[in-house]
C-alpha cells in the first residue's frame, strides 16, 4: 500500500533511513561485533579474489562494494555485469569467492553465472531482498537486505541497502584478517549517520523538485560526473534519470570527458558534479568549469566538509567509503521529480519489468 504517496518510488526513497537503522541493528552489536555466520566470514577471508556479480543498479552497488572490500580486507575484488561475465570464460584464480547482488534474487543473467560457479565448486553468497529467491537458494550463503518489498521498477532502497550490507560484510572480513583500518571503521555508527543524513536530504525534497523542474524537465540529455567512488554513483544517478524520465543521461568519469565526450555539451546541457572525496574534489570542480565554459548548466552534489558557497546540494558528512549512501539520494529525487513533472508513470516506466527473468 502506497498510503499517502502518489508513487511507490517516493515511499521507497523515504524508507531508506529506516532501512539503514534496521540493518545496523540486525547485523551489528553495540560492542562492535557483528552476527554474521563465522563460517562464511572464514570462506571469504581465505579467498584470493572476490568477484561481485550483478545487473543494473545491483551492479552499481557492486562497484561501491569493490572499493570497500579492497580497502577493508585487502582482497583483490572484481565487479562483473552478469550478462557479460556469464559468457566471458574469465581467467580465475585458485580460490575465488563470489558475491551475487540481486534485489529480486531472480535475475536470469546473474543466475546463469551462479550455475557455472556451482558447477565449478566455488563458494558463493547471495545478498538479496527476497528470502528463498532462486539466487539465495542456490548459493552457499545468503544475507537479506531487509528493505521491505520494493515495488517501483526503479530501484532505490535496494541500492543503499546493498551498500550497507557490503560495508558490514567488508568490515567483518577485514577484522577477521586483523586489518587495522577495518577495526577502526565503526560501521554501526556510520550507518546511524547515514540514516540521519538521508533524512536531512529527504527533508529538502521541495528544493530538489524545483531543481528538477529548472534543469531536467525540458532537457534532452544530461550528465552526471565524478571521480572514483563518485563516478560509480554517477552511473547509478544517470540510470535513474534515464529509466523513469527518459532523459538521455550519462554517468562519466569527470577527467575522461575532455577526451571526446565533452563535444556533446551545448548551451543548457545539465551537468551534475558529484563531489565527496578530498583527493579528487578540486579536479572534478575544474572539470565542471570546463563544461560551464561550453555552455553547460552545472549543479553540484557535495559532501559538507568539501562544500563551497555556491554549491547546489550539500549532503552531510560521513566516512568517505560510504558517501554513496548520501550522494545518491538527491539523484534519486531529481529523477523522481523529473518523471513526475513530465507526467510520466514513475513506478512503471515503458519497456521495463521489475524483475528480468530472461537472459
Ligand atoms: C534499475 C533496476 C535494474 C535492476 C536490475 C537487477 O533501477 O532496478 O537495473 O537493478 O534489473 O535486478 P536485481 O537486483 O533484482 O537482480
Description:
Catalyzes the first step in hexosamine metabolism, converting fructose-6P into glucosamine-6P using glutamine as a nitrogen source. Its EC number is 2.6.1.16. It is found in: Cytoplasm. The active site is at 354 (for fru-6p isomerization activity). One of its GO terms (molecular function) is carbohydrate derivative binding. This protein has 359 residues and is α/β, with parallel strands linked by helices. The protein contains 14 helices and 10 strands. A 5-stranded parallel sheet has the order 2-1-3-4-5, sandwiched between helices. The protein has a 5-stranded parallel sheet with strand order 7-6-8-9-10, with helices on both faces. Strand 1 (49-54), helix 4 (56-73) and strand 2 form a beta-alpha-beta unit. The mean pLDDT is 97. Bound molecules: fructose -6-phosphate. The site of fructose -6-phosphate has 15 residues, from helix 4 and helix 12.
Task: Briefly say what this structure is.
Homodimer. The chain is α/β, with parallel strands linked by helices and 359 residues long.
Topology of this structure?
Layout: H1 8-14, H2 16-27, H3 38-45, E1 49-54, H4 56-73, E2 77-81, H5 82-85, E3 96-102, H6 108-119, E4 123-128, H7 134-138, E5 141-144, H8 157-176, H9 180-184, H10 187-202, H11 205-216, E6 221-226, H12 229-245, E7 248-253, E8 270-275, H13 281-292, E9 297-303, E10 313-315, H14 324-341
Parallel strand pairs: 1-2, 1-3, 3-4, 4-5, 6-7, 6-8, 8-9, 9-10
Helix pairs in contact: 2-8, 2-10, 3-8, 4-8, 4-12, 10-14, 11-14, 12-14
Fructose -6-phosphate binds next to helix 4 and helix 12.
